[in-house]
């Protein structure tokens, strides 16, 4: 089986409401899809995404550099192909634009491989479960008032969610605490509340306000510091009784290794689209398992793929859920009942978009 045709498709999809955290605010998401075709007629799809636009740079890299390099390659040799693409852009970046493009292609090669087996990704990887429990982030955006926050949290708990996540990192940390307090009082003691700073605190702020979070029995404190600060997170982990979660802005397995070895993380949150793809995601998950740590995939637009990765991991009992409106993108939308997502049965990775979505939301070059 050889790759003989490739194309890319760039869309801007409306989320349907404003989402906001301590870093940014958005009501659309940009997605770049990659379509690969083999000499035996199989069609494979992969994608990557961004909030703040700029995917046109990735499209140019894919179209002009990566696609010519993968013609004639066997998608079963995806590890070799990924290394080849790394060295194509060796001196202009192993993260950012270069890595975003590599991941989309690696995902499409996995899609081809799974379709050749006529099986979904989670079964090809080796399944541990056939549904994945979700925690809800859509309740917790900073764009919501405290009253809206409480209303949405209560609503989702009634639907069955046992874990909700609140965004924090406001200029006045007292306001963060009041929002958390209001939700805790509304949902009771049995519901777990996680909080996410989105990298906005310095170490002193994190120590002072992290300790104040303990009174609310916070499940985890996510990305409190600069995402590359291994020593700072390790120090914080030693000083707080609130577990540290991170990983959505780490870009290779070596970064995860350093955090894990330093004792700087309790909940490991890899994101397949920030790494080089599915293979590296699974390597990170295995590293976490070897150190007795749980994997909680960071997810927003990629629930179709992360649910399957979590289903293949004994140490991934939970997955993030938000942007439910974006599920309309997929040709085969996932099935959600209460706080569980059920695994797809169609062959492949499951990220083929609807054709009408590609046409309606296309970004003109």
Description:
- The chain is 38% helix and 21% strand.
- By secondary structure, the chain is of the alpha/beta class.
- It has 2 domains: 3-118 and 353-360, 2-Layer Sandwich (Enolase-like, domain 1); 122-342, Alpha-Beta Barrel (TIM Barrel), CATH 3.20.20.
- The protein starts with a strand and ends in a 5-residue tail after the last helix.
- The relative contact order is 0.15.
Would you kindly provide a brief summary of this structure?
Helices cover 38% and strands 21% of the residues. Helix 1 packs across helix 2, helix 1 packs across helix 3 and helix 9 runs parallel beside helix 10. The longest helix has 20 residues.
Relevant CATH superfamily of the largest domain: Enolase-like C-terminal domain
Q: Please list the strands of the largest sheet in the order they lie side by side.
A: 5-6-7-8-9-10
Q: Provide mean pLDDT, rounded.
A: 96
Q: Distance between the terminal alpha carbons, to the nearest Å?
A: 32 Å
Total count of strands: 13
How much helicity do the residues have?
A: 25-40%
Shape: globular
Number of helices: 12
What pattern of helices and strands is seen along the backbone?
Answer: EEEHHHHEHEHEHEHEHEHEHEEEH
Largest beta sheet, briefly? 6 strands, parallel
- What structural category arises from helix and sheet content? alpha/beta
Low-pLDDT residue intervals, each spanning 5 or more residues: none
Question: Which architecture of the largest domain does the CATH hierarchy give at level 2?
Answer: Alpha-Beta Barrel
Radius of gyration: 20 Å
β-strand percent reads 15-25%
CATH topology of the largest domain: TIM Barrel
Number of domains: 2
- The CATH class of the largest domain is identified as Alpha Beta
């Amino acid at each position: 089986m050889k790759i003989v045709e490739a194309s890319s498709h760039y869309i801007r999809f409306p989320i349907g409401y404003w989402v906001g955290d301590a870093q940014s605010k958005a009501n659309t998401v940009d997605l770049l899809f990659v379509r690969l075709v083999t000499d035996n007629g199989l069609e494979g799809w992969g994608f990557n995404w961004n909030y703040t636009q700029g995917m046109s740079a990735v499209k140019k890299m894919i179209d002009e550099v990566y696609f010519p390099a993968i013609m004639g390659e066997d998608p079963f040799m995806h590890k070799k192909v990924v290394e080849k693409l790394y060295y194509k852009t060796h001196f202009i970046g192993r993260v950012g634009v270069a890595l975003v493009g590599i991941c989309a292609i690696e995902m499409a090669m996995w899609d081809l491989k799974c379709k050749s087996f006529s099986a979904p990704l989670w079964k090809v990887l080796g399944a541990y479960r056939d549904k994945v429990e979700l925690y809800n982030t859509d309740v917790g955006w900073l764009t919501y008032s405290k009253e809206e926050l409480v209303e949405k949290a209560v609503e989702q708990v009634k639907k069955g969610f046992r874990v909700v996540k609140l965004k924090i990192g406001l200029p006045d940390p007292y306001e963060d605490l009041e929002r958390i307090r209001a939700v805790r009082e509304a949902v009771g003691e049995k519901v777990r509340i996680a909080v996410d700073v989105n990298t906005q605190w310095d170490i002193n702020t994190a120590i002072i306000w992290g300790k104040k979070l303990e009174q609310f029995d916070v499940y985890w404190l996510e990305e409190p510091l600069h995402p590359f600060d291994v020593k700072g997170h390790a120090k914080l982990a030693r000083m707080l009784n609130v577990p540290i979660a991170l990983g959505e802005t780490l870009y290779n397995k070596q970064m995860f290794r350093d955090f894990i070895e330093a004792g700087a993380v309790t909940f490991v949150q890899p994101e397949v689209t920030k790494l080089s793809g599915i293979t590296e995601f699974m390597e990170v998950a295995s590293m976490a398992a070897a150190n007795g740590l749980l994997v909680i995939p960071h997810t927003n637009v990629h629930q179709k793929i992360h649910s399957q990765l979590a289903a293949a991991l004994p140490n991934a009992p939970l997955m993030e859920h938000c942007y439910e409106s974006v599920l309309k993108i997929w040709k085969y939308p996932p099935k959600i009942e209460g706080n569980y997502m059920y695994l797809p049965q169609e062959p492949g990775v499951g990220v083929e978009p609807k054709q009408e979505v590609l046409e309606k939301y296309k970004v003109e070059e």
